[in-house]
Design a protein that fits this description.
By secondary structure, the protein is mainly α. It has 4 helices and no strands. The protein has one domain. Helix content is 61%, strand content 0%.
């Protein structure tokens, strides 16, 4: 059972994280600086500011739209 759970976890991680693996890791506070050169981060920065500097469903939708992933 443990091996099945581990295999499923790896599969699930690949499905969720795979499309996002090219996104640079950064804190929400860093979106503004990155947004000076990258319209994707500019849009994320504006979205998070509308939501009190918090991640939201809207930010997630922007992320998946940009990186071509699918919503869960």
């Amino acid at each position: 059972m443990k091996n099945s759970v581990q295999r499923f976890g790896k599969f699930l991680s690949a499905m969720i994280i795979g499309p996002l693996s090219n996104m640079p890791m950064t804190a929400i506070e860093g979106f503004g600086k990155l947004g000076e050169k990258d319209p994707f981060f500019k849009e994320l920065d504006a979205c998070c500011k509308r939501n009190k500097e918090l991640w939201s469903k809207e930010a997630e939708d922007i992320l998946f739209e940009y990186y071509g992933g699918k919503e869960a």
